[in-house]
């Protein structure tokens, strides 16, 4: 099940990347690259940081084709996509949660300590979007928005807690997935957000 | 021959990096760092992604000296460089093509699958310029411009196709190099470009 | 002693990261992430480039807690921090110098050649600040400012020169640390800076 969700998720992330590239008037190639990077960048950063070589997507060429195609397709269907905005937010939320669980699993298998496992989950969940925003020259949205990255943190913590108490792996995954998805959707619906830190000094220099 | 072209190319890339740093009023150190990163960043990203340690430039200190010197020299000669604009575009095109071929070769030697080999070629070809633009806080030019990154893709595909059909390696290299260079120069001359994706939604949020 | 200085330094760097995040109106999560990245990003980039896996902070969870806590604490105390500006600049200078020495040591232990050791020191010293500025969507300050990154270069060179001439390791460390700190503080006090390269062409395109 997680694999199906994963494939849907990287497609949705690739399309969100393509839209961001379109806002910067990139050409077809730029669109394809940003799509690829948004979808697979989080896992890539995780693999590199954990020393988990070869990097996952290098062993799964279909992931490359899927994300690049989704990006290019977006150029054609973009004008109709505002009608699908709600669907998209749901797919993106599924992606965030699925990526986080997958990231935790990778770090667990490599025997990293729990805090690192949590970090690996978060990095997998949010770094695709961060790389997209860096390449599109804007402040990463996932660090400003309504509850987004923190959903990733909560999913990771819940997942590891359930595993720790010996709960069956499938049940754990389903629970973490459902709670995370519900939370993200609730955050969108009721505009939940974390306290924002606004700092505007007059003459301070860091 | 590829080595000579490579040395010329990293020098040209370092100088283009230095000019970009100058547009951001960086100091001498910043100029040197951006020059280094523009010239050797593509290969570094490739090596890290492919798990190809030690990273190439760490085994070739002269590459460090060459790129840093080229960057600093640029501070002195910048005022005369607009006369050499045409020469520069040619050197940059040579670099793009040479980097791509070298990147493909590195991935081939590590036994990666063909799609990954193509990606390795492209990453080596264009990521130096992308890192330069990220550090200079602008949207990566190579993803917007006339046919640039796509030349890298075509060179990689041509190179691998010829190798696949058993064409002699030197001939393959020369053919890929010439075709790629010709294509990039033609793209500059006649302003060839890929379709651009301009997306300006009014109320859409990704 | 270096460990104590290191802990003080990553705390100071985390707080500087948090302030930068606050200037971009990030939420609590963004503040924590930027704090973590500013403090530990330089060492992470160094470890990845040198192939030094596992990356240092993955083996020291307390570093994660310390930097994240320091970042969150900053949200509370930020309004009083302008009074501590001078203290902060000193802590930041200590961090720059300590990070550089630590970076050189890591590369020395991995038997890299001297130019790479110097680069490893500089990367450890300045890349946390560079990553902070990239994520906060501004041109890296350490490449523009008064003598900053170049202090890192000088510390690395001094450290390696003294080691080369067989000076006792503790003495070497103390000397490099003191000279580096003095130099950075002098640079702040008397606004020393490197020549700046300002390049503003009218019609040139790189």
In words, what does this structure look like?
Chain A has one domain (2-189). In chain A, helix 1 packs across helix 3, helix 2 runs antiparallel to helix 3 (61-77) and helix 2 (28-50) runs parallel beside helix 4. The first copy, chain A, has helices at residues 2-23, 28-50, 61-77, 85-109, 114-135, 149-164, 169-189. Chain A contains seven helices and no strands. The termini of chain A are far apart. Helices cover 71% and strands 0% of the residues of chain A. Chain A has 206 residues and is mostly helical. Chain A binds chain C through residues 48-51, 112-116, 119, 130, 134, 137-140, 142-145, 148-150, 153, 193-201, 203-206, and chain C through 16, 18-31, 33-34, 44, 48, 53-55, 58, 61, 64-65, 75, 78, 81-82, 85, 88, 92, 134-137, 141.
Q: What is the string of helix and strand elements of chain A? A: HHHHHHH
Arithmetic mean of pLDDT of chain A: 91
Biggest sheet of chain A, open or closed, and with what strands and sense?
none
Instruction: Name the structural class of chain A.
Output: mainly alpha
Please provide the count of β strands of chain A. 0
In total, the number of domains of chain A comes to 1
- State the helical fraction of chain A: over 70%
The proportion of residues in beta strands of chain A is: under 5%
Rg on CA atoms of chain A, Å: 17 Å
Low-confidence stretches of chain A: none
């Amino acid at each position: 099940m997680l694999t199906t969700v994963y494939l849907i998720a990287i497609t949705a992330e690739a399309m969100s990347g393509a839209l961001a590239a379109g806002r910067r008037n990139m050409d077809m190639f730029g669109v394809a690259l940003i799509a690829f990077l948004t979808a697979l960048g989080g896992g890539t950063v995780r693999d590199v940081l954990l020393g988990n070589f070869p990097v996952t997507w290098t062993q799964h060429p279909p992931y490359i084709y899927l994300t690049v195609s989704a990006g290019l397709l977006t150029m054609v269907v973009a004008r109709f996509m505002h009608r699908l905005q709600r669907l998209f937010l749901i797919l993106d939320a599924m992606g965030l949660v699925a990526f986080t669980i997958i990231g935790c699993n990778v770090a667990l298998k490599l025997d990293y300590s729990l805090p690192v496992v949590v970090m690996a989950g978060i990095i997998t969940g949010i770094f695709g979007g961060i790389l997209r925003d860096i390449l599109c020259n804007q402040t990463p949205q996932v660090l400003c928005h309504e509850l987004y990255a923190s959903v990733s943190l909560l999913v990771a913590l819940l997942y590891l807690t359930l595993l720790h108490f010996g709960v069956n792996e499938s049940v754990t995954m389903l629970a973490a997935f459902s709670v995370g998805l519900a939370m993200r959707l609730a955050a969108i619906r009721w505009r939940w957000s974390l306290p924002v830190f606004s700092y505007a000094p007059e003459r301070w220099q860091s």
